[in-house]
């Protein structure tokens, strides 16, 4: 039995005026941000884990970084974004929030950022950037995560594309979906991680480091 959208929406947590402004901005300017049910679920999992430091790959306009910082009052977040315009918007939004001093925005390609410039230990990594590069992101940043740390990966559904036969996927997205399937098979067989898929929002993969 499928749950109704109304019932699911009844669990969405209230947001302050700034967050609602960001949600409207994202919709009007076609900026992808995490779905409300997805970010609420992620934040609840993070509250259980209680990380001191989070690395986010894919800042966009800073929405999820702010949501995580608000949910975890003792956590510091480093977030990486390569789009200069989005970085500018993110910094402006974050500066207006009460969590600004706990969020560091790095402008740059996450595959080119010097790992040595980041905290030596990251308790949690949240990946929500170029879907076709998930495995490369994972391989680069997972060494920063100690045993017991968690990597959270969003958009595993890819708005339903991941569940289609390849011939049904638009041609321009096929390489990305192939890479996503390759990453999924790779991480599920990885000896250093216990991974589980949560059908929340656009699909959330959770990888616990052994």
From TrEMBL:
Enzyme nomenclature, EC number: 2.1.1.-
Superkingdom of origin organism: Bacteria
PROSITE patterns (alphabetical): SAM_OMT_I
Catalytic activity of the protein: 5-hydroxyuridine(34) in tRNA + S-adenosyl-L-methionine = 5-methoxyuridine(34) in tRNA + S-adenosyl-L-homocysteine + H(+)
InterPro entries in alphabetical order: Cation-dep_OMT (IPR050362), SAM-dependent_MTases_sf (IPR029063), SAM_O-MeTrfase (IPR002935), TrmR_methyltr (IPR043675)
Binding positions (S-adenosyl-L-methionine): 34, 64, 81, 109-110, 128
Gene Ontology terms describing biological process: methylation
MF term (GO), any: methyltransferase activity
Keyword Nucleus: no
Binding site for Mg(2+): 128, 154-155
Keyword line: Magnesium, Metal-binding, Methyltransferase, S-adenosyl-L-methionine, Transferase, tRNA processing
Class in the EC hierarchy, top level: transferase
Matching Gene3D superfamilies: Vaccinia Virus protein VP39
Quaternary structure and interacting proteins, as annotated: Homodimer.
Family named by the database record: Belongs to the class I-like SAM-binding methyltransferase superfamily. Cation-dependent O-methyltransferase family.
Function: Catalyzes the methylation of 5-hydroxyuridine (ho5U) to form 5-methoxyuridine (mo5U) at position 34 in tRNAs.
Name this polypeptide is given: tRNA 5-hydroxyuridine methyltransferase
Organism: Lysinibacillus louembei
């Amino acid at each position: 039995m499928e749950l109704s959208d109304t019932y699911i929406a009844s669990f969405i947590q209230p947001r302050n005026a700034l967050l609602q402004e960001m949600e409207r901005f994202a919709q009007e300017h076609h900026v992808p941000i995490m779905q409300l049910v997805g970010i609420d679920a992620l934040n609840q999992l993070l509250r259980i884990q209680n990380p001191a430091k989070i690395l986010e790959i894919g800042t966009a306009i800073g929405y999820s970084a702010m949501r995580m910082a608000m949910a975890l009052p003792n956590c510091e977040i480093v977030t990486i974004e390569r789009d200069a315009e989005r970085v500018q918007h993110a910094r402006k939004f974050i500066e207006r929030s009460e969590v600004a001093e706990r969020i560091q925005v790095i402008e740059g390609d996450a595959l080119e950022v010097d790992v040595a410039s980041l905290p030596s230990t990251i308790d949690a990594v949240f990946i929500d950037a170029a879907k076709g590069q998930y495995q490369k992101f994972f391989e680069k940043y997972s060494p920063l995560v100690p045993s017991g740390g968690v990597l959270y990966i969003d958009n595993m559904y890819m708005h339903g594309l991941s569940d289609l036969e390849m011939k049904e996927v638009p041609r321009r997205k096929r390489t990305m979906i192939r890479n996503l399937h390759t990453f999924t098979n790779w991480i599920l067989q990885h000896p250093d991680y216990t991974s589980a898929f949560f059908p929340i929002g656009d699909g959330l993969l959770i990888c616990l480091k052994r």
